[in-house]
């Protein structure tokens, strides 16, 4: 597990401003409308490639969107570091820049690429801003419905629509394991291991795989799910979503222990609406 660098910057005195947040929202909306959606259900065979395995996909939309988001982020935060999923696929060493960057923008240009490539409208854009390794702003954007969930550290989480309607978010009340509904990363496991995971969560009311961290965290923060399990700690999947969830009153545990940071590289994460549920699920999950 990567050692977390103690931040030198007090993030409470160096937040993302409202103007910067509005600019980030405008950026993701523009990229969603002009870059991502025109590619949805129009991809040709040559515009979809496999990375590490046949289900780990990248499309021309991922690459074009990341380029546009990177350029826009640098205009909003001159001199910032940008860490995008596709850039890291080309150069994994880029991950190491998160810890020391005064301002880092972490981007997943099309989260849920498998769904996107298969014409399933469950995908989104994830964007996080960190200061010296701590997430201070998170944005989970749905290009299909043009709405977003966002959070400032210490400022709560909100859902916003293109019509200008905003509402504060909170997770749903704590419940017992047998009442819990959530998501499991079934595609990360094959054969007997997949069966083991399903058996471990046999007591929950409902467990499914969305293949989209953006919508998994949105559902938790909006009180529409109770837990989400993930077997990897890619910062573009979790940095924004964890902040949103925590600001909505939820929590995460890594290998059963509290404490998430975008600098962590190894471990399995359970996000939940309550600490009690997270602890109970961790006890049976691994």
Automatic annotation (TrEMBL):
GO terms for biological process: inositol metabolic process; phosphatidylinositol phosphate biosynthetic process; signal transduction. GO terms for molecular function: inositol monophosphate 1-phosphatase activity; metal ion binding. It comes from the Bacteria. Pfam families: Inositol_P. The keyword NAD does not apply. Mg(2+) binds at residues 85, 108, 111, 237. Keywords: Magnesium, Metal-binding. The keyword Calcium does not apply. Its cofactor is Mg(2+). SUPFAM superfamilies: Carbohydrate phosphatase (SSF56655). Belongs to the inositol monophosphatase superfamily. This is Fructose-1,6-bisphosphatase. It comes from Alloyangia pacifica.
């Amino acid at each position: 597990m990567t050692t977390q660098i103690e931040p030198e910057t007090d993030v409470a005195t160096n937040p993302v401003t409202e103007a910067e947040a509005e600019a980030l929202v405008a950026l993701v909306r523009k990229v969603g409308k002009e870059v991502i959606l025109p590619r949805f259900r129009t991809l040709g065979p040559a515009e979809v490639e496999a990375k590490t395995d046949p289900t780990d996909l990248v499309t021309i939309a991922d690459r074009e969107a990341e380029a546009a988001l990177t350029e826009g982020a640098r205009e909003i935060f001159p001199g910032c570091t940008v860490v995008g999923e596709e850039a890291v696929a080309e150069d994994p060493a880029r991950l190491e820049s998160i810890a020391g960057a005064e301002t880092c923008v972490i981007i997943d240009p099309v989260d849920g690429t498998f769904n996107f490539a298969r014409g399933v409208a469950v995908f989104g854009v994830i964007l996080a801003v960190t200061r010296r390794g701590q997430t201070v702003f998170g944005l989970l954007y749905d290009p299909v419905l043009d709405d977003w969930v966002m959070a400032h550290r210490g400022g709560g989480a909100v859902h916003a629509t293109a019509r200008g309607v905003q509402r504060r978010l909170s997770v749903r009340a704590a419940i017992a394991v047998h009442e819990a509904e959530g998501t499991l990363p079934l595609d990360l496991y094959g054969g007997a291991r997949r069966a083991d995971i399903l058996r471990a969560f046999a007591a929950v009311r409902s467990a499914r795989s969305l293949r989209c961290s953006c919508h998994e965290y949105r559902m938790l923060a909006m009180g529409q799910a109770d837990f989400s399990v993930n077997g990897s700690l890619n910062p573009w999947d979790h940095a924004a979503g964890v902040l949103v969830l925590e600001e909505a009153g939820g929590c995460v545990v890594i290998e059963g222990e509290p404490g998430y940071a975008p600098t962590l590289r190894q471990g399995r994460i359970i996000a939940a609406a309550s600490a009690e549920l997270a602890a109970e699920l961790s006890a049976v999950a691994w």
